[in-house]
Specification:
Order of helices and strands: HHHEEHHHHHHHHHHHHH
Number of helices: 16
Number of strands: 2
Strand content: under 5%
Radius of gyration: 22 Å
Strand order of the largest sheet: 1-2
Structural class: mainly alpha
Length: about 375
């Protein structure tokens, strides 16, 4: 047992929730951002501003035309797997081999591909690390082991994992359509809290394929946390804190939350309000990329995702036009309500001495 533990330590194989559910999941979301989301944004810019270079095919592969954004989107599987490999501190030969693993697991996982990529990439990466530099023909053995295990597991478990993820996501979306008020609260609070925790709400939404009303509630919850914390802590952190939390991440407050959990209640309660407002009053839906549902105001990706969904719906005839009411709902849910409600909800906590000046100061 001691020899095995020494071997794992030497190979930097750390079997832990932090390594797999925080580091790997967070990296996967970054891989999605750099491929699927960037591709979606490029396509939207090209379409809205009639930029020929961005709307015309630049490559044809196996009879399929790809635009610039389309190429970026198509690489989401490899991007996720390489990002996971990077988070797991893979040596170069393992890291580069993850491109094939990511492509296979994402393709075979179908709509639930991101969850399949997470599982398969972690196992393939750790197996690759285990054999790395153990033989004199490392340049052959390490890629062979990594790619073979990754593709075999993709064939074996990616389809059922993808179906399971989509089943859970579909159940959440169905429940939200059926009970928009209560599920609006539930989804908004849970996804918003996931965004502030050191896990990836974006990756969770992507893995579950969370769109529609449930996606809109997720956007509301994330915005409540980010904008809520940014405005509520403005006295301590000024404009720098407003920007870093408001369009960066509320995860910056995690250390302060550990010191004083009371500071987390106002954003959570705000998300419990804005979630059902989004679902019941404005019918806010995310019809863009599911990963956008868990991004909130980070780089305005959540808002761009909602807008790209509107554009797609108008183009397909599912939506007649983008209305002023649509814009009003998006602005209120994303910015105005969190900025107003969160500081107001925090007032009683401040008066009771549960939240004090300096409790949300960012170092």
């Amino acid at each position: 047992m001691n020899r095995f533990q020494s071997f794992l330590k030497r190979k930097d194989i750390e079997i832990s929730a932090k390594r797999y559910l925080i580091d790997a999941l967070g990296a996967m979301a970054q891989g999605l951002f750099c491929s699927l989301l960037i591709g979606t944004i490029i396509n939207t810019i090209g379409t809205q501003f009639s930029i020929g270079f961005l709307t015309q095919p630049v490559a044809q592969i196996s009879g399929t035309d790809y635009t610039v954004g389309g190429i970026a989107t198509a690489m989401s599987g490899p991007a996720m797997a390489v990002a996971i490999g990077f988070a797991l501190k893979c040596p170069p030969l393992v890291l580069f081999s993850m491109t094939a693993v990511g492509f296979a697991s994402n393709a075979l996982g179908g709509a639930g591909g991101p969850l399949a990529v997470l599982f398969v990439a972690i196992i393939a990466a750790e197996c690759g690390k285990a054999v790395s530099k153990e033989t004199k023909i490392d340049i052959l053995v390490t890629p062979l082991v990594t790619v073979f295990i990754g593709i075999f597991l993709s064939w074996l478990i990616a389809p059922p994992l993808g179906r399971a993820a989509m089943s859970v996501g579909s159940l959440i979306m169905w429940a939200t359509d059926l009970q928009p008020f209560f599920m609006g609260i539930f989804v908004s609070v849970v996804v918003g809290m996931a965004l502030t925790l050191p896990i990836s709400s974006a990756a969770i939404c992507a893995a579950l394929g969370l769109i529609g009303l449930a996606g809109g509630a997720a956007v509301a919850g994330c915005c409540a946390q980010m904008v809520g914390f940014a405005v509520m802590s403005f006295k301590e952190n000024k404009w720098g804190g407003l920007v870093s939390q408001g369009i960066g991440t509320s995860m910056l407050q995690m250390g302060n939350i550990v010191k004083n959990p009371w500071i987390w209640l106002p954003p959570i309660l705000t998300s419990a309000i804005t979630g059902p407002v989004a679902t019941c009053l404005f019918g806010l839906e995310m019809q863009g990329a599911p990963v956008s549902s868990g991004m909130g105001t980070c780089g305005l990706v959540g808002q761009i995702g909602v807008y790209t969904g509107w554009v797609s719906d108008v183009a397909s005839g599912a939506k007649a036009a983008i209305t002023p009411f649509d814009w009003l709902g998006l602005v209120l849910i994303s910015f105005v309500l969190p900025a107003v409600l969160c500081p107001l909800i925090a007032l009683p906590f401040r008066r009771a001495g549960l939240i004090k000046d300096g409790d949300m100061k960012l170092s």
